[in-house]
Amino acid sequence: MTIRVLVCDDQDLVRAGYVTILSAQPDFDVVGQATDGIAAVEQARLLRPDIVIMDIRMPLLDGIEATRRLVGPGTAPGALRVLVVTTFNLDQYVFEALRAGASGFLLKDTPAETMIEGVRVVAAGHALIAPEVTRDLIGHFGARIREGNGGQADRVLAELTEREIDVLRLIVAGLSNPEIAAALFISRETVKTYVSRILAKLGLRDRIHAVVLAHRIGLFTGEP
Asked: In this chain, where does the modification 4-aspartylphosphate occur (predicted)?
């Protein structure tokens, strides 16, 4: 299956580099380019790509707000996914990008091979950031946004079965699917099924956003 990609970056050389790298792959089709956040949103809605590669610092509208308008809370669920790529290795950028709805985060000095594989991973519906990185990052910022959300934790738990809660707890702890399978003495395929059910019930795009939600509402606070 061909992966349709929209490249959004205000730097001509960077944008051209992405286009050259991605266009050389037989399973990629670069369907458009944008140089600012407003154009990124307009082009994404017009061209309907599978993946938007989004810079953060762009004129007129930054990449985080552009991401929020395309895939953030309140937007209609769809196949579109956003991979944020930026020069700035700042925790706040990563956190805000994920909260805005991005499915992955890379730095611009990422090797070309990693970028290519990252696009494929995100297109397949998976999160790009390693679970342990996500856990540490969101754990750092989570305390800022937990106040006033106590009742939400109970409502979330009420949506899930006991086994789904067990799986969600281990996702939040940073375990991979094989590690969850070993911890709960179930198969990896069963874990995948539980993860899919959890995401569907909670209206989440991927496991990164499950971790974001858990920390935002203080779910499993204080647990290892």
From this structure: 55
Per residue in 39-85, pLDDT tens?
999 999 999 999 999 998 898 899 999 999 998 876 766 778 999 88
Q: CA 84 → CA 3, 36, 100, 197, 220, distances in Å?
A: 17, 14, 11, 26, 28
Question: How far is CA 78 from each of CA 4, 71, 185, rounded to the nearest angstrom?
Answer: 14, 8, 34
> And the tokens for 116?
């290519």
Q: What is the CATH number of the domain that holds 150?
A: 3.40.50.2300
Which tokens belong to 88? 């700035």
pLDDT digits (tens, 9 = 90+) for 172-208: 776 778 888 998 999 989 998 999 899 888 888 777 7
Going by pLDDT thresholds of 50, 70 and 90, the confidence category of residue 26 is very high
**Domain membership flag for residue 144:** yes
Same domain as 9, residue 106: yes
In this structure, are residues 67 and 75 in contact, taking their beta carbons and an 8 Å threshold?
no
Alpha helices for 101-187 (secondary structure H): 112-123, 131-142, 150-158, 162-172, 177-184
Contacts of 163 by beta carbon, 8 Å cutoff, 6+ apart: 184, 194
Q: pTM of the full predicted structure?
A: 0.65
Considering the domain architecture, whether residues 153 and 207 belong to the same structural domain is answered as yes
Both 91 and 11 in a single domain? Answer: yes
Total domain count, the chain: 2
Q: For residue 27, what are the domain limits? A: 3-129
